[in-house]
Amino acid sequence: MTTTAIRTGSGWYRYASPATFYPLAGKMIPWFAAAAVVLAAAGLYIGFFVAPTDWQQGESYRIIFIHVPTAWMAMFTYVVMAFWCAVSLAFNARLSAMMAQALAPTGAMFAFVSLWTGAFWGRPTWGTYWVWDARLTSTLVLLFLYLGFIALRASIDDPRRADRAAALLALVGVVNVPIIYFSVRWWNTLHQGSSISMTAAPKMAQTMLVGMLLMSLAAWAYTIAVTLHRVRSIMLEREALAGWVGEAAAAEGTAAAAAGGAPR
Amino acid sequence: MNAPADDALGGLWWACRRDLKLAMRSRTELAVIVVFFLLVTSLFPLAVSPDPELLRSIAPGIAWVAALLASLLGLSRLFAADHADGTLEQMVLAPAPLPALVAGKVLAHWLATGVPLVLLAPLAGLQFGLAADAIAVLAASLALGTPILSWLGAIAAALTLGARGGASLLALLVLPLAVPVLIFGAGAVESFASGLGADAHLSLLGAGLILAWVFGPAAAALAVRIAHE
To answer: A33-194+202-234 is classed in which CATH architecture?
Structure first.
């Protein structure tokens, strides 16, 4: 536990210290949160009111404006999480491990939402809530990988040990993710052919694409905002004995008092 | 027992012999794993239906799922006893490289728990009315696949040392990672039965086995070190 925060570093390494990253994250959160709200509002408006009705699937296709961005985000978040895990193992960096810890619940949530919305889309389109399609199955396995990561972290009491154990698990997982994806795809095509395939999607109307991109950007902004908020809480919790936490709390307390006296 | 040699091969050999000797002294634990495997395969006809045609078609999957679950049983003991009495810490400090010692332990674990499953698979195959050559493919897929399961399990077992909720947590960590092994293992028998040949599946399992032996020792050794910080 460092009691003297590193405030004299230069360049980007400066922000590898929780003491300097904490206020920076605090400044970034409102911007990303606002961006998430604006982008999601625009994306949902385009998705639900502007984009044309699909001639094949009717109105039910509109769930892709939520489904596809969440599925992308679930996969991408795992890679980002594994990246921070690799950094934390290689450089023994506390903040990187905290970032990975903060990303995991959001990634799991996106994996769950993409499965859930996929089931609601599958019912009218395929006539069933669930098929053992390659993408569905690999997303389900991805959800289990997230849950394993979270469970391993939660069951080791020493935070530094939990960081390193969970980091190694995430790296083993990220090596396995492509293998799992291709094995599942091969398994499925061997079994039942491509009677149901989402790869041969028809060409998309311009407005549909715009709506989906806006929603994807909203998912990115949301993930960043929520992760930064969560990592700030993790920092406070784990570094509660460090000097900078008291200073930060005092600074925020006085700011709140000056702004109108919220109770401390 | 003598101290391990300083070189990698000597360390591997020493750890393997030591763990095999320990395993032979607790044969009941090994027998339980074997009985568990046969018990699980025997439950499926009771739960699904005794129809021979149906059972023959799901036999490879059942044998593989049962093998996967049975391989979980012995995992928590792979490092736990040595961790509890301090032996594992001595291994971390020993002059022999830790990956070699861990590899010896995993090899012994596979010889004690994986090989009996490979030998018993034909029995399960007969129960489900598989043809003789399909049974041979099943045994071959298990022979290639169970060492991969041992390596995945070893990494997870070392990561969960000293963690709360040991066995169920271990299952949550291992089973998602074992999905490709399950698919290629059971798929080998199925594609053989459908006349496509099992070469492709068995080759992929072999590739996985090589990958497991290349990356497994370093990863499992790192996991053991993390547990001893």
So the answer is: Up-down Bundle (1.20)
Chain A neighbors of B172, CB-CB under 8 A: 144, 147-148, 151
What does the domain layout of chain B look like in residue ranges?
8-227
Cβ of A152 within 8 Å of Cβ of B163? The answer is yes
Q: Are A144 and B176 inside 8 Å of each other by CB?
A: yes
Overall residue count recorded for chain A in this entry: 264
Do A152 and B173 count as a contact with CB atoms less than 8 A apart? Answer: yes
Residue B55: CB atoms within 10 A of its CB come to 18
Residue B65: band (very low, low, confident or very high) from pLDDT cuts 50, 70, 90: very high
Residues of A in contact with B162 (CB under 8 A): 156, 161
Domain ranges of chain A: 33-194+202-234
- Closest C-alpha to B88, from B19, B167, B9: B19
Q: How confident is the model at residue A170 (pLDDT cuts 50, 70, 90)?
A: very high
Whether B163 has its CB under 8 Å from any CB of chain A: the answer is: yes
Beta carbons of A60 and A125 less than 8 angstroms apart: yes
Q: Is the pLDDT at B50 greater than 90, yes or no?
A: no
Chain A partners within 8 Å of B175 (Cβ) = 144
* Burial degree of A16 (CB within 10 A; 0-12, 13-18, 19+): middle
**B187: closest CA among A5, A184, A43, A258?**
A184
Global pTM value: 0.85
Q: What is the mean pLDDT of residues A89-109?
A: 90
